[in-house]
Amino acid sequence: MTENTTHEIYYTELATAALNQFLAAKAYSKIFVLVDENTKHHCLPIFLDKLEIAPAAILEIKAGEIHKTIQACINVWEALSQKGGDRKSILVNLGGGVVTDLGGFVASTFKRGIDFINIPTTLLAMVDASVGGKTGVDLGVLKNQVGVINQPQMVLLFPEFLKTLPKNELYSGFAEMLKHGLICDQNYWNALKEGIDFYNEHHIRTSVDIKSAIVTKDPTEKNIRKKLNFGHTLGHAIESYFLDHVSLKTLLHGEAIAIGMVLEAYLSHQLTGLSGLDLQEIKRTFLTFFPKVSFTAKDIDIIIHLLKHDKKNVNNDINFVLLKTIGEATIDVKVPPALFPDAFAYYKEP
């Protein structure tokens, strides 16, 4: 079990026991389970076998980032209402980052707020999205523009769900694990860059512990929690751009963030003292696990334009998290826009 000041995180058999004990003690009026098409098929039967109290209803949304919308929230709010949800109900979010983000937001706003539990089923959601209380949806292709920070009652991790995932989904989560090493723990980075057993609970726990410790100190992202955004300023803009262009293959979150981390490592080398050797190591490591993506000059111009919508901007200044060295990050760095094309040029170099 991982403890913090906001919620508890349980693993495997202890997670099952904690869930059933919690639900029995709370005596909720109704238990609702939110799934998407994939987790309904692959994960829901496994989960229901663990549950001692039958849920009132299974609610389903469509899978994929393009469905992380206000309309999807409306559909779930209406389903909760139609099925007799009240302020004493609880929503269990069984799925990846879209389900936990959207489900957390739905629960936080239905009847002015009901309890929810996150049960992440992807590696990305286990080490990132389900932990820390960030909830919300996209606004068009712009990532996470509408939402609140509200903590779940608990987070339950069952690594067995990872066996249902394709490799690209596993690598998407791996990108966030590499990020944790880059911003906080050089030894962890060194271990991960040699490769990973995706079903190794030890590495999952390490990433969860890193994120949980940061969130406990700064739950509402006033200070050090911003470090978790390394790679995400440019990475989110890249992700949004690829979502908006049907002619391009959609990038998974981690695939876009991997590119963002190489770009922002270059900015770190220019602005915050990251050494050339560290920069080369970061680029080499990410290109080992994530194939290089091509960008035209027009692509880059549009991606740079999308930066103005980043949530971290203040007074039109684009704020970055950059690295001083591998294992140490610094926040609120303003980057001269002239460096953005240079960062892409570095990424494109052989």
Give an overview in words.
- Its cofactor is Co(2+); Zn(2+); NAD(+).
- This is 3-dehydroquinate synthase.
- Catalyzes the conversion of 3-deoxy-D-arabino-heptulosonate 7-phosphate (DAHP) to dehydroquinate (DHQ).
- Keywords: Cobalt, Lyase, Metal-binding, NAD, Nucleotide-binding, Zinc.
- The protein is an alpha/beta fold and 350 residues long.
- It folds into 2 domains: 2-165, 3-Layer(aba) Sandwich (Rossmann fold); 168-348, Dehydroquinate synthase-like - alpha domain (Dehydroquinate synthase-like, alpha domain, Up-down Bundle), CATH 1.20.1090.
- The protein is 48% helix and 16% strand.
- It is built from 14 helices and 11 strands.
- The strands form 4 sheets. A 4-stranded parallel beta sheet has the order 4-3-5-6.
- The mean pLDDT is 94.
List keywords for this structure.
350 residues, alpha/beta, Rossmann fold, Dehydroquinate synthase-like, alpha domain, 4-stranded parallel sheet, 3-stranded mixed sheet, 14 helices
Radius of gyration: 20 Å
Strand order of the largest sheet: 4-3-5-6
Class computed from helices, strands and strand pairing = alpha/beta
The biggest beta sheet is recorded as: 4 strands, parallel
- Give the overall pLDDT as a whole number: 94
User: Which oligomerization state do the chains in this entry correspond to?
Assistant: single chain
Tally of helical segments: 14
Order of helices and strands: EEHEHHEHEHEHEEEHHHHHHHEEH
What is the count of distinct domains? 2
Using the coordinates above, name the CATH class of the largest domain. Answer: Mainly Alpha
How many beta-strand runs? 11
% residues in beta strands: 15-25%
Described by the principal axes of the CA atoms, the overall outline is globular
Distance between the termini: 44 Å
> Which CATH architecture of the largest domain?
Up-down Bundle
CATH topology call of the largest domain: Dehydroquinate synthase-like, alpha domain
Residue share in helices? 40-55%
User: Please, what is the CATH homologous superfamily of the largest domain?
Assistant: Dehydroquinate synthase-like - alpha domain
Instruction: Please mark out the parts with pLDDT under 50 across 5 or more consecutive residues, or reply none.
Output: none
